[in-house]
Amino acid sequence: MKYMMLIHQADAPTPRDPEAWSTLSEDEQKAVYADYQAMNQNPAVTSGMELAPPETATTVRVRDGNTLTTDGPFVELKEAVGGYFMFEADDLDAAIDVASRVPAARMGGAVEVRPIVER
Question: Partners of 4 in the beta sheet?
Answer without folding.
Answer: 86, 114
